[in-house]
Specification:
Distance between the termini: 29 Å
Helix content: 25-40%
CATH superfamily of the largest domain: Metal-dependent hydrolases
Structural class: alpha/beta
Number of domains: 3
Mean pLDDT: 92
Strand content: 15-25%
Number of helices: 22
CATH topology of the largest domain: TIM Barrel
Number of strands: 22
CATH class of the largest domain: Alpha Beta
Low-confidence stretches: 1-10
Largest sheet: 8 strands, mixed
Shape: globular
Amino acid sequence: MSGIKPEKEEKASIKLFHNCTIITLDDKDQIAEAMALHNGKILCVGSESEVAQYINNFNSQQRGETDVESIELNGKYIVPGFIDSHMHPGVYIFFKAQLNLSKIRSYEDLKSTINEYKNKKDQDEWILGYDLMEDLFSDPNEHIFPDRYKLDEICSDNPILILRHDGHICTTNSKALELIGVNKSSVRQLTPENGEIKIDKQGEPTGIFTEGATSIAMSELPIPSLEDLKGGAQKAWNELASFGITTIGGILQTDEEGIAGKAGAMEVQLIQLMIREIGIKQDLVLYFSTNRPKKLKRLKRKFDRLSRVEREFEVGGLKLYADGSFGARTAYLFEPYSDSEEDLSGFMTIKEEDLYKKTKNTLKLGFQTICHSIGDKSTDIVLNTFEKVVKDLKDESELLIDTENMLRIEHASQLNDDILKKASKLGVIFACQPAFINSEYTWLKNRLGKERLKYTYPFKSILSAGITLSGASDAPIESAEVLEGIKACVIRKGFVPEECISVKEALKVFTKYAAKGINQVDIKGTLEQGKIADFVVLNADPLSIDENNQEKELNNLKVLRTYHRGKRTY
């Protein structure tokens, strides 16, 4: 496979964007009237006259006058390019060719949707459905994740695997269990430490797999064709560009031990292949799930070779998992779930000594460590481990980098005052997914109890504590549409309304703060001279939204154009 062909040389003209309002989100929150770009970077931003004067001065210093391309925006609004600091690009591509179950609201819907999809498949061909949310079914009596027997009623000829909305639990029918090799005699031998293969009272597998065990369920899934993958990637990059996303903080698996099993071990090759075959409309900062942090150096060399411009494809660091999810009742809490008859409180999916060792080795290599943690107890354990790692490295004089922006907790969904103080003191970043509220607000009260809700997705408290809140979607778990994420920060569906934040702060969550989350705030996240020219054109002023009519006006806010490194991608 040959490398990427270099772009054709173009005469390096200046692009002048004017007759617009530019919301820079810089440290002074300056508003500008015009912006000039050159070679994919911001040459100048300011008033119309200031930018015109700067271009004249720039040209006078060149050997020949540089052409100026004037782009009239007719009073529209510019904000920095959106950054999704945590999503799964490999899975995003893969799922574009699979069965989306996000709109299912009953078992009858599920049955008819699968049977309709099945008619397009050959007999014995796998059916993979994703994004099922049984808690949103119309009938409360159906708020039970389906097991093998329920799926067998729907279809017994084709193997079926359905992934729950949060990605931490899946279910299979009997045909799939047979192909996977999970039965009454093998189930205990196959069950991993970091997950569970559910069994009934007779010891028969129910078809439900949680956490690390989901990789076993997915082990026999076929790899889509190259054409299907290319089609999925094209759809993915175009869709993300339409959302205004210019940089992806991508989570990739590197070996079979991860949640996606054998298929996940191909994610690195998939992304590399898609970059070579069709290109990409975003920059990538990649975080890898691997048992061997030393792999990061080799992966960095691979993606450095793919980059055509500075820091186009960057290796961010190591991705670890500390617990599960609220939906599967596997997020690790100090107190049991309020709606659990078995007094479940979740569990850690990594040993503390492994968390310590991998974090320490990753920091020594100069990469970020980011760790999935949803429950308050697991987050407390992760913070204590981070604190010990930093202290020990300093004591051993092996800390060769500044740890600012180098430690991050993914999701940080359930917190308390002590956790907020500890995270603030350590300078740990929280990469949160505001859109989780849209999917979970109807059932979280029952799951967590009224007293714990005030500490659930507490965005205002996080910012008030001086903690960086880095915006993300966790797509394809949630929609990657950034404006929906911003709305979730501001409106929150009425869920714990005292934790709502302003539109300006929400914009920063997906720009300036997210740039800090991926350790690129020096080159992205605000519209300032010398930074990469990533920006979005909006149809209306997000900072002038009427507080008494926020939801309607936010619904009317649209992305008109997206520019990545100065080139229009949408």
